[in-house]
Automatic annotation (TrEMBL):
Family of this protein: Belongs to the Nth/MutY family.
EC number: 4.2.99.18
SUPFAM superfamilies: DNA-glycosylase
Signal sequence bounds: none
Cofactor: [4Fe-4S] cluster
Main EC class the enzyme belongs to: lyase
NCBIfam families: nth
Organism of provenance: Gallintestinimicrobium propionicum
Name recorded for this polypeptide: Endonuclease III
Residues the record lists as binding [4Fe-4S] cluster: C187, C194, C197, C203
Alphabetical keyword list: 4Fe-4S, DNA damage, DNA repair, DNA-binding, Endonuclease, Glycosidase, Hydrolase, Iron, Iron-sulfur, Lyase, Metal-binding, Nuclease
Residue span, HhH-GPD domain: 38-185
Amino acid sequence: MNAHTKAILDQLDAHYGREYICYLNHENAWQLLIATMLSAQCTDARVNIVTKDLFVKYPSVEAFVEADLKELEQDIRPTGFYHNKAKNIIACCQRLMALHGGEVPSGLEELTALPGVGRKTANVIRGNIFHEPSVVVDTHVKRISKKLGLTKEDDPEKVEYELMKVLPKDHWILYNIQIITLGRTICKAPTPKCGECFLTEWCKDYQNRQKKESRKKK
């Protein structure tokens, strides 16, 4: 780990601590899997409102297998893209029952073979449920990692591999939690609160903006 990366991680640890926090409410692996699927293009807060009733109505993987598609669509409608999400949730639970005895697998290949489950969702499960070091690349992580010079990539999978190279394993999940907090509170898109940020010293966007303003003054 180079000095640039270490300085950023030290600041993140100092401001946000090293506690593992999952923003999606869940009691077990399958609930987190479904909640993460619902979180695509939707806020965690809204997902938590929906799943509060959803997991009472459907208390098991089997219950989702037996769910009526149209009814499930209406149950999850507030999360957006509900046609696809409902179809994928039912298909995912069918596969869990058929191949895994209703249990959520821990392997990346097994998880990404489930309908509607990409690398981001798989890594959320691996990191939060099975405590396997995993880099979760969401919009905050991709955007802010580029600003901090930790990646030059745009493709989430490529960002994931780059971050795996530069971040120590004990920060893989932690970095995601910290950056999400930063992205939601300070480094907001498209209006970041740079005056409140503790990472401006290492932020390429901020440094470039300062240089431009400095040249204007001259």
